[in-house]
Amino acid sequence: LLHDKAQVFPLSDEDHVRTRLTHSIETASIGRSLGAIAGVGICEKLSEESRIRPNHIGEIVAAASLAHDIGNPPFGHSGEMAIGSYFSEGKGLSLRGILGDRLWCDLSHFEGNANAFRLLTHHFKGRRKGGYALTYSTLASIVKYPYESTLAGSKGKFGFFVSEEEHYKKVATELGILNKSDGNGTKYCRHPLVYLVEAADDICYQMMDIEDAYKLKILTREETISLLTPFIEEHKRGHLTEVLGMVTDHNEQIAYLRSKVIGILIDECADAFMCHEEEILNGTFSEPLVKYTSERCRQAYKHCSEVAVKKIYRSRDVLDIELAGFRIINTLIELMVDAAIKPDNAYSRLLIDRVSSQYDLHAPTLYGKVQAVFDYISGMTDVFALDLYRKINGNSLPAV
């Protein structure tokens, strides 16, 4: 599912460039370390009778980190934007009056994190009940924005669709997550381990994206080293220079430096988690852990983020593919939603027959039909979506 989905560089022919799958595996590895380190501090505060062990925390964070991107559609954030804009700016806007503001808000603010919670808990046709049957702690640790779409605000972030609201409420009640609903919508505090999953993701994508940009020659070796070196304390940089001097392979040099920086960030984020544990537990902590690392790491991370936006995420090659991805997903959404709404039309029947029966395009409600389209399209890989788009437009035909 995630192997042929882009992380940052869609449809790259370079084997070493990370996909959603490799990103998720690496995030899980970092998450396991973060959870285990924080778990030591947590267990020290528990009674001797407690059955919780440090590795238990690491396993929960690792599992949540592995699944955190499972709801992302093809072409990354470009795909999310294409789905949401179809309902906020395109033909889907006409459905607002039929669905009502609350359901329409789910569709027009389509969010990969909320879709991950749906995919992990939803009962698809022909599948077992309970979705992936994960523990409540794992499910709660995935939801970065534990509130409904009407509270998404300008960033468009939220944690569960209306269809999965009761699932999340059950998880939150069982785990004792603080309810912050005020009559304007369902809202909870984050589960504490969300902060570790978020930190694992922040560490992983920032460091790995820089390494990938180097391998794709978007960043030079000198630029990459200058971005990563400031994370390391000055009195340790002499040893770093010695090691880099012993390794002649430039890719290996960058990989070594990247791994050193990740180790530093893991330790600092775990420390930040324990230092702010009380605020996290009472729901008054709201910032990512990377913002509470040492001044040295915080400034270095900020500089990496600024350079990444300017030179990586906004590079011409990435933007060109995102533009194409936007058009592909927007077209597929338009055609599939129209087919689900008008299933008796000849073209609609052809499209529907192509879709797996696990997706309930004949759901009794309009909201259910559209969500089935989301489920189908968000499960596509970049390559599958491109191939289907070409065939629908008559640009390619299957071999006969």
Structure description:
The protein has 400 residues and is mainly α. 60% of the residues lie in helices and 0% in strands. It contains 18 helices and no strands. The chain is globular and about 70 Å long. The two termini are 27 Å apart. The mean pLDDT is 90.
Taking the alpha carbons of the first and last residues, their distance comes to 27 Å
Please indicate the percent range of residues in DSSP E strands (runs of 2 or more).
Answer: under 5%
Helical element count?
18
Poorly predicted ranges: none
Note the main attributes of this structure:
400 residues; 60% helix; mainly alpha; single chain
Topology:
Elements: H1 20-44, H2 54-67, H3 76-88, H4 96-99, H5 101-108, H6 112-121, H7 136-142, H8 165-175, H9 194-215, H10 221-228, H11 237-246, H12 250-275, H13 277-282, H14 295-313, H15 316-341, H16 346-353, H17 366-378, H18 382-392
Helix pairs in contact: 1-2, 1-9, 1-12, 2-7, 2-9, 3-15, 7-8, 9-12, 9-14, 10-12, 15-16, 15-17, 15-18
Summarize the structure.
The protein is mostly helical and 400 residues long. It has helices spanning 20-44, 54-67, 76-88, 96-99, 101-108, 112-121, 136-142, 165-175, 194-215, 221-228, 237-246, 250-275, 277-282, 295-313, 316-341, 346-353, 366-378, 382-392.
